[in-house]
Design goal:
alpha/beta; Hypothetical Protein Mth938, Chain: A; 3 helices; globular
Length: 127
């Protein structure tokens, strides 16, 4: 699906599909963290089972007001202990499937919110 906002002056997600997103003309097929203040880094995980507390501590260190966690093709919630660094800093966390996370990030970033999206982009297996 292609996403075309009216105007957005911050880093945005321009398109997405199963196992990929588009950012600034680049098709990304690996898990990634994007922020409304220009943050962009690989998120070292290929599947939900790879995640742990260190992944969410990394997000807390960015200091956003909100973290949106895109958990892949379906909604899967992180363990409460993994979220402790975010909660202790008063950073909100929302979990949704990755496609919904892309849309939500664009809206909030476009409103000028300091938001970070952590997207789990799992490899798509072809039968």
């Amino acid at each position: 699906m292609k996403i075309q906002p009216d105007f957005i002056s911050v880093q945005s997600i321009s398109a997405y599909g199963p196992g990929w997103i588009g950012v600034a003309g680049e098709k990304m097929m690996r898990s990634v963290v994007l922020g409304s203040r220009g943050e962009r880094m690989d998120w070292n995980c290929q599947q939900f089972d790879d995640l742990g507390a260190a992944h969410f501590a990394q997000l807390a260190d960015l200091g956003p007001e909100l973290v949106i966690f895109g958990s892949g093709q379906r909604i899967r919630f992180p363990q409460a202990a993994w979220l402790r660094p975010l909660i202790e800093r008063g950073i909100g966390v929302e979990t949704m499937d990755t496609q919904a996370a892309c849309r939500t990030y664009n809206i909030l970033a476009g409103e000028g919110r300091h938001v970070v999206v952590a997207l789990l982009l799992e490899p798509i297996s072809v039968p």
